[in-house]
Amino acid sequence: MKQYNPKALEGLKDTIFSEGESKAIAFAYFLAEILDADKPSNDKIVVIDDPISSMDHSRQSIVSHQVADIMNDHDCQVILMSHDISFLERVESYLDSSTSSQKLEIRAEKRDFIPFNISDYLTDDETV
């Protein structure tokens, strides 16, 4: 990814890559940047905003593993934002037992972050 030349494909992105493929390439570049061995990793804060939108299930699974790997690296703090609860659950399932995480949300009627409780969003067939 370090030798990637976007100028060579300028103007062709929409005809070559789907939106999901474009996001996957952008995420791969992002990973290459934050995992660069030449850059010190101490005290990194990594912000990841909805990395799986428009991706197929197989890419979503790969990204969830990669995000969990970053979170398991205790030299950095990760802030992961997503509207996809199943993605957040999948990432959490891949975390090491020694990795701590805190789930927070913002609701329209609240001004501050509040603890995220998945049961607030789950329902049964009867309710639907």
Outline the structure in words.
- Helix 3 crosses helix 4.
- It is built from four helices and four strands; from the N terminus they run H-H-E-H-E-H-E-E.
- The model has no long low-confidence stretch (mean pLDDT 82).
- It has one domain (6-102): 3-Layer(aba) Sandwich (Rossmann fold).
- The protein has a two-stranded parallel sheet.
- Helix content is 35%, strand content 12%.
- It is globular and about 55 Å long.
- It is of the alpha+beta class and 128 residues long.
Q: What descriptive keywords fit this protein?
A:
alpha+beta, Rossmann fold, two-stranded parallel ribbon
The portion of residues forming beta strands comes to: 5-15%
- The averaged pLDDT comes out at 82
Counting DSSP E segments of at least 2 residues, the number of strands comes to 4
The whole-angstrom Rg is 17 Å
The largest pleated sheet is described as: 2 strands, parallel
Helix segment tally: 4
CATH C-level name: Alpha Beta
> Based on CA inertia axes, which overall geometry fits?
globular
C-alpha end-to-end distance: 46 Å
Query: What class would the helix/strand composition place it in?
Result: alpha+beta
Estimate the helix proportion, in percent: 25-40%
The unreliable regions are none
Query: What is the ordering of alpha helices and beta strands?
Result: HHEHEHEE
Number of structural domains: 1
CATH superfamily: P-loop containing nucleotide triphosphate hydrolases
CATH fold topology: Rossmann fold
Query: So, CATH architecture?
Result: 3-Layer(aba) Sandwich
Strand order of the largest sheet: 1-2
